[in-house]
């Protein structure tokens, strides 16, 4: 059955060009960033630059478009890129967020996201979400851990459902009809111990699917929602934003969307698993029991496979709060989770989230492993199946 998210052509026919990337041709790196030393953190995901590359400088460089386009492609290929000891300010961080998407082909009507938790009178503006784990006022809050004893108790009641840290894996704002392409987080205050962030590769998770199971999931859709935000907002004493949140398609109090289970990243052309424990609630066109079973397995592909994950420890001890480590990731092809293993310490940073295209599945998409000439982890599934058939046949002769 053809669905609204099955192909770019189908999608464009149904809703026009709003929220759809104009080109499906993958982009190639120009390698202009390679004059700065960098290295792959893990084989499947993660790249890191030292402090000799300053994002505040390349945003204003004479060849900034060349550099930022290369950065966008690198992020989409590697999932997440880390930068140590950065002095980039808020305005440059927003400029960087806009340019990464623009130079890699995002729709013109996709701007920077305004998070539902961002107060209208936030001193840092609509497009900066302050990620904070300590008392804060008028700066935008994300799941504040200590505002008051009363509100802390309310939040405990909201969250009293699981004690598995894996519940935190998510991709940013997939409850929006037009979710994020790139996100930029600068942590300027980090605990001496703890507070690490983990990312996992959706490309690699897709490659863990057997070909037959992948075929079943391709074209399937899932329901994403964040109605729990209303409970968090009540506990934190804030009012959610229901106005336009960076795209004409992102507005209202619903905080829900339907997206393909398998998504193709337009920058790379690679297929990835596009479900997450934070916001994906239901696979459509199957029973609830089947949906729960499938989602449980897909979530385990991410949280039980540490070889498709990367863990980043944020730097501490910088001389100024204006300096901090930066992570930039592609939300289309990664999920991430904070490690909440610290107490009585501040963890504060500023996040910019850019909006991309409306998610789609393209049958012409390929896999990261195929493009890189790597063997698929499940290539032996059909071979093993045939071996069982032959063994049964031989036993009955």
TrEMBL record:
Q: Which domain of life is it from?
A: Eukaryota
Q: Which UniProt keywords apply?
A: Dioxygenase, Iron, Metal-binding, Oxidoreductase
Listed Gene3D superfamilies: Clavaminate synthase-like
| Molecular function GO labels | 2-oxoglutarate-dependent dioxygenase activity; metal ion binding
Give me the ranges of the annotated region Disordered. 360-397
Q: Which residues form the TauD/TfdA-like domain?
A: 43-348
Q: Does the keyword Oxidoreductase apply?
A: yes
List each coiled-coil range.
none
Q: What GO CC annotations are associated with the protein?
A: cytoplasm
Please tell me whether the keyword Iron is annotated for this protein.
Answer: yes
Q: Locations of Basic and acidic residues compositional bias?
A: 368-379
Stored SUPFAM superfamilies: Clavaminate synthase-like
| Similarity comment | Belongs to the TfdA dioxygenase family.
Q: What's the protein name? A: TauD/TfdA-like domain-containing protein
Query: Native species of this protein?
Result: Cryptococcus amylolentus CBS 6273
């Amino acid at each position: 059955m053809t669905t609204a998210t099955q192909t770019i052509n189908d999608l464009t026919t149904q809703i026009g060009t709003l929220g759809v990337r104009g080109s499906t041709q993958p982009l190639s790196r120009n390698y202009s960033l390679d004059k700065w030393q960098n290295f792959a953190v893990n084989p499947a995901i993660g790249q890191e630059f030292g402090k000799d590359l300053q994002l505040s400088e390349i945003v204003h460089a004479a060849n900034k478009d060349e550099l930022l386009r290369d950065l966008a492609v690198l992020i989409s290929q590697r999932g997440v890129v880390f930068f140590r000891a950065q002095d980039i300010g808020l305005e440059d961080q927003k400029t960087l967020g806009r340019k990464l998407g623009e130079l890699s082909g995002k729709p013109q009507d996709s701007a920077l996201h305004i998070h539902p938790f961002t107060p209208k009178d936030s001193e840092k503006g609509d497009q900066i979400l302050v990620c904070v784990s300590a008392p804060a006022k008028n700066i935008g809050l994300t799941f504040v851990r200590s505002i008051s004893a009363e509100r802390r108790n309310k939040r405990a009641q909201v969250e009293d459902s699981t004690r598995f840290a894996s519940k935190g894996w998510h991709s940013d704002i997939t409850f929006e009809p037009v979710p994020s392409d790139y996100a930029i987080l600068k942590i300027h205050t980090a605990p001496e111990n703890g507070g690490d962030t983990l990312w996992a590769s959706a490309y690699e998770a897709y490659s863990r699917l057997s070909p037959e199971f992948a075929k079943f999931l391709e074209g399937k859709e899932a329901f994403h929602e964040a109605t729990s935000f209303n409970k968090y907002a009540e506990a934190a004493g804030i009012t959610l934003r229901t106005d336009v949140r960076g795209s004409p398609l992102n507005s209202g109090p619903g905080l829900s969307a339907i997206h393909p289970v398998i998504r193709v990243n337009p920058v790379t052309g690679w297929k990835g698993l596009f479900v997450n424990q934070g916001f994906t609630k239901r696979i459509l066109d199957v029973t609830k029991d089947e949906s729960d079973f499938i989602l449980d397995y897909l979530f385990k592909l991410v949280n039980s496979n540490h070889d498709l994950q990367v863990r980043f420890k944020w730097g501490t001890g910088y001389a100024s709060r204006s300096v901090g480590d930066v992570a930039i990731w592609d939300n289309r092809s990664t999920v991430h989770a904070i490690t909440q293993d610290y107490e009585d310490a501040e963890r504060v940073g500023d996040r910019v989230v850019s909006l991309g295209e409306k998610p789609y599945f393209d049958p012409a998409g390929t896999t990261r492993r195929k493009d890189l000439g790597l063997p698929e982890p499940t290539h032996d599934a059909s071979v093993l199946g045939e071996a069982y058939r032959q063994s049964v046949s031989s036993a009955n002769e």
